Fold each of these.
Amino acid sequence: MSENSPQSNGPEQQNWLRAQWQRVRDLARRDVVIAQVGEGSQNVAVGKNIFQLNVGGRNITPYVLVIALAVLVIAGYFLYPLAEPMWNPWQMRGSLNIAVADFGLLQNGEMKSSALGADLSAAMYEELTTQYEGIRSASPGEASRTPVSDVLIWHDTMPAEQGEKNVHFGVIEGPTPKERSDAAAALARRINANIVIYGYLTPDGSPEGLVLEFYYNSPAIADEPDAATGSHQMGATIAADVPLDDPRHESTAKLQMTPALNLRSGVVFWLTQAFSYDFANQPETALKILQEAEQRLTNWPAADGKEILYFFLGRAALFSREFEEAIRAGETAIAINPDYVNGYALLGLTYMDRAQLYFVQGRELSAEEAACTSVKNIEAAAETLEGAAADAQQAVAYLEAAARLAPTSFWPPIEPYVHMNLGLAYRVLGLARIFEQQYEPAGQALSSAAGQLQTAVTAFPVEESPVYFAWSQMGLGLTYRLQAHLASVDDFLATEAGKADEAAAARARTIALLGDTVWAYQACIDQKEATLGYPVFQKKVLECSCVPYRDSAETAKQALEEEGNGE
């Protein structure tokens, strides 16, 4: 190689070789379209990603696209009624909204559709509708001014011309009361129903027959946790003496069960009338309706599940603060069914309310207190401190019985409500003992209150039950504040006795308990956004209790801490 020859590995030659290699690689990635078109060619398409159909020498691509679009439009027209309920379920808009689902067939732990069950649920819907139409037509002027006039009832057999419903209910699924209750609650939320009536035929039961249930989304009209929230069994099984899973016996079974079903429809009619006044915050009228129902339903045997009537009658009496009537009804309910958890809860709430009302009477309320305190029928309160303490003790006894029965009750999810109310009852008992200056029993009662309320807080997931979670936290705040008061009493007594170490320890307990108080109230306040749909709760629990009591506890805590720092 001469010295004048170019360097084979020089920079210029390397760049030239790299460029040629890149061109080769680029060619491999290119789409090369080669076509030879002769004279007379028609409908020629040369290029990439071209869609064209030719028939008889004609391009029919536009026609195919139009047809495809038309098919999509027609399919959408027919599929829209099926798809719309998924994203736009129509809402019930009555003063009280009742959804009647089909009754299923529960066999071998599986809920199935049943022609007989569907017929029976349709019969209940028709009977309810007829009875409400009757009450409206009997006095149209008067009925139009009451909540009953706007009671709305839906069922899958509603006439199509009403055009009000786009959600198919079917049967409420689930082999257990809890699973059925959850399914009924989901339907209630989906369509804005207050009551979902459902049930099932039980060929495996003894006796065979129809079990009726309903889910009630009760309003918080008395500013207290309500034992009516949730699912209830509506009387005993409506028996039949033919196989319920054999279609050949459907007509006979329907004839056998219809009289009892009509009676049960009448029960639903009376109950739902009362519920409509519950939602209108007129418990006194609800009480009158249920007292009339008691007089009218004499053909309903007590042993046939009649305790539910007395529970709701007593509940209306409690909300009206007709305490003696509430106690009569509650005692009747548990006499009929000694394992009826709701009856014990009702009695516990009744005695607790009568006890705590004692501490309101006999003093003039400030403007803030008057805005936040119900003094309805205050004259029915316990007359003496001893009477209030006795009522609180009775409330604890009934709620303790409810807590023992709750895990095996028809609707076990009532157990957290029972623990919450039991904690509140123990708190009232502790307050009564403080007023009696029985400090050791007061401390024991308040310790029990805190334990029950902590159980309730754990049992109410904040994401699912923000109202009851906040209520439990409010109860804890009230309890911790009373415990802080007891600690301050110990501080005072130790100081008076010259026991400086004991006084300092008691003061530290007081500060710590005030901190717990602030924390519990803040946990209640933190649910403000999650509970915007509950205006009564927002007013009575958040604004009237948790916020001012948190501020008061914080002020007291800071004062003690500053006093300690000053020393």
Note: The two ends are 104 Å apart (CA to CA).
Amino acid sequence: MPVLDSSFEPAAPAAAANRRVAEERLGELTGLLEQLNSGGGRRYIERHRARGKLLARERIELLVDPDSPFLELMPLIGWGTDHPLGGGIVCGIGVVEGVACVVSANDPTTRGGTMSPYTMRKFLRAMEIAHENRLPLINLVESGGADLSSQAELFVPGGAMFRNLTRLSAAGVPTIALVFGNSTAGGAYIPGMCDYTVFVDGGAKVFLGGPPLVKMATGEDADDEELGGAAMHSRTSGLSDYLAADERDALRIGREIVANLTVGATVTPLPVPAAPLHDPADLLGIVPADPRVPFDPREMLARILDGSRYDEFKPLYGAALSTGWGAIHGHPVGVLANVRGVLFSEEAQKAAQFIQLANRNHVPLLFLHNTTGFMVGRDYEQGGIIKHGAHMINAVSNSAVPHIGVILGGSYGAAHYAMAGRAYAPRFLFSWPSARSAVMGPQQLAGVLSIVARAGARARGEVFDEEADARMRASVVGQIEAEQTALANTARGYDDGIIDPRDTRTVLGLALSVVHNAPVRGTDGFGVFRL
């Protein structure tokens, strides 16, 4: 297989400038992650520890295999909102007794572990990943239930959490609940619908209605233990399968449950692959600080593919999109990478053919986004850009092999969809700090609105207000600049997390390992391609 050369010069002034901007963005993210790791703050952490309890991340650390990786998902969801950063829940993929699992842990130091709309969005995504990749789901439960101030946003869609637990079980995907504290009201159905439950003696409290509600509803006097204590559920109701002496014992039992599973996703070591020939540290300097400056994604591929080997498919046709075959940590991949921002008819047709080939060969697809959209204009419309773009979207929509995406730079308009954006259900979608995504770029969007307003004034016979137009343009540009950033999109749950470019190969290797836990099979059943 051909080996990629590199013309990138790390010491060049442009590379140094790009690296400085990337480091500034990473510094901002590091600060947010430090804030996230501090949970609800010192006061609530100290109170939690005074009760003899472990923090959510400490529980995860004791659950997963020593020195194994943990791929945290959607850590910065909720940023910029009135809800807790990270949704008050930690979700990710870790290895437990050699088995890759999805792990979800409530953070009781953050508003008592109550669930906000972002908690629900993140938990549902974790369940989706568990189902698609057939990964056991382990829930580390300690939650006050729904954040009642957000009940209008939570109640109706929140029922999907319980439905999904039963569907996971029906699909043969094991579900496990380790209950450390409160799991009340609707939250009681988390352990109630899991295949295996472990309750911590003296800690777990699982009931539909606590003592005050029972008193109000029935007039009955009952304490926490009588209504939902771990010992009661272990000896009387049967809701608890295992009674743990303490939190560490619960985590030990959880590991034993996973070790005894006869189904699940066992991590199979692959032969040690050839490392890339070029330094991954260069990735900080490859993406230009100015988003208007193009860059060659082959420079990135040379730093993430095994041995920097890349067999490019149709290299002379549709040159604004590079397609080809490679491998990451021993896992074969088909690559679609935007070379120049705009996609033309040739790129769309090449992509549709390549996606069909990947499905025929049962090879996962890696989408590397940096596109401003499909080309517009009279000649392109007459040349069939809509038909050809539809070919690519058809192929992406009906492709059955796993899709993994990384947004490197821009990802705008219908081209975001054609590159398997979030709405097209990729198995995983990550962003670099330099990522931007919106309907179109800020200047273009403001310009379109200005043209429409100008035409409207002309049609009404009015004098166009140039000063008001300038203010509108500036306002729109500012709004879209703020809304299109990697941080703004990850806050909404539109990706699975922002990653350090230097970690891209590692993250993609983990993701590819996970998707191979379920059968990787392509399809030849595509929709009608309009010719």
Note: The first strand starts at residue 70 and ends at 73.
Amino acid sequence: MFDTLLIANRGEIACRVIRSCRKLGITSIAVYSDADAGALHVRMADQAVRIGGPSPAESYLRIEAIVDAARTTGAQAIHPGYGFLSENPQFAEAVSAAGLVFIGPHPDSMRKMASKAEAKRLMAHHGVPVVPGYTGTKQDASHLAGEATKIGYPLMIKAAYGGGGKGMRIVTDAAGFAEALAAAQREATHAFGDPEVILERYLERPRHIEMQIFGDHHGHTIHLNERECSAQRRYQKVLEESPSPFVTPQLRAQMGEAAVAAARAVDYVGAGTVEFIVAADGRFYFMEMNTRLQVEHPVTEMTLDLDLVEMQLRVAAGAVLPTDLLTATPLAQGHAIEVRLYAEDPQQGFLPGSGRLTRLRLPVSSTHVRVDSGVEQGDMVSVHYDPMIAKLSVWDSDRERALSRLREALAECSIRGPKSNIAFLEQLVRHPVVVEGRIDTAYLDRALPEFLPADTPIPDHAVLAAACLALLDDAAQAATDTLPWAATDAWRIHGRDHQKLNLHCRDLAYEIEACGHDGHYAIRWGEQTRQVDGAHFDGSSLLLAMAGHTLRLPAWIDGTDIELHHAGQRYRFTRRPSYVFETAQTESADEVHAPMPGRIVLVKARAGDTVSKGDALLMMEAMKMELTLRAPRDGVIDHINATTGEFVEADTLLVRLS
């Protein structure tokens, strides 16, 4: 086993590897960019080395800088994590050339899987089913259009290199092919440095099932069951689970056999994933192989009681895979589900966010709940990297109980700073297609409004709970002040008076009068009057006793910010002074500004052009996604302040209409 290991990555995967190193007594070395100088993985590691500027190209993608960091610190091996250089054969070769061990497959195995076109040809040769399509090297638009006609519509255009949903487009008819092809090639060039694409027949309403594979240096190759990843948005996984509610024991055996055949075809060593697209009738086809650990590996670990990172390290050090795994594929015990908490705004097309996490409350890890995060409260979500805040994984004896655990765990989460997708996830895990296990890969994109939080009426219990939280917080603050006039119980010589609260939620204002103290209140607003027989707040939940019954709600209060969770919905109240002067705010309909820092990838309009409201003016790439900026109204373009390839800061004026 290694004495010292360098992790060539950041965020939650770096923290994950550091924890496994601690378990095995291995000294961990982190690398960091200028943007990550104070990041959690740097604080957790035994040592840390700066490798460059804030962007990935200046730091986490610099092969020489990472290898030099390993040399100077005396590391014996490098773990690549996932993303960045994890599937880069040149990096693996550079690690080996430096006399270090690369925790992953051989570079030749990576190369065989790097191109989706080459991978499909290789898999077909080894008897692994592949989706019919075009994987040739002739890439001019007219030839590809001809091949698309042969395949038939609908079809999928995919970047031949890379993954993560980049460079992928579904085309429903010939009229839309040219534009979709150009967009896929452009995105593939920016993301992977190569515009080559492949064409595949598009399967209607398919499932996405992946098999965890593992190989060692002694010729053993196994699979460790499946994970279902059919809940996707724009080809990005949203929810993963194991075992799949769709897969039968017979289908699991068939897919496992195909996955092992795929791994053996490239002499695979270490942890990897073979991904399949599965039709409604159970026919499955090879999609791609990820030659690294996957983000969703915790659900496999939780159902099989394994540590896949520890297995990676042991296999890389020359150990044989565990005997019990070689003799039979282990049966999943119970059910595990994972979701990813992101700094993004679902109401604005899931626009990625950035900024300081002024509040980050996540569940406490236990037998049933696991939290993997690369940030803590007070940390920054950087504009330079993926905006994932944490992975939330749950386990229980069956799928129904696991879903219940996940709902409870999400209710315990609270994030302030950049906007998050928590409310979206809470809708997702209650939706019938998820509860009944029948979601397909395109369902979220077809029916996204079903998953966005609706502006339902604010229930009286939510208003009552917010008022009690404010009153209890006032009392707690006053208790720290020994001066008699600091008390907030409205005491008067002739008896206690009413206290007044001004609470706002969404666009509604609540003028509240409360009488009482120490958790016993009479509360009135509008035509409502409620008696609270006892209220208690323990810092994370509020207990209300009233009219012979009690109610417990997950809740938080920070100054004027109140958040609570009731009946599956999340409510945020803001406490304001009784008299507030609000200035009117207006938004210009004549200007288009950059919604966040990013790079301009395409300018589609020119000064003097006549445009209609909603016309695409330019496209920018930010935080791993491509954004289309559109005309805010009908008009004529007066000025464009953007050029292709330019990096712009947030709020930069890009287009002005005359």
Note: The chain has five domains: 4-103, 132-201, 208-451, 460-576, 591-657.
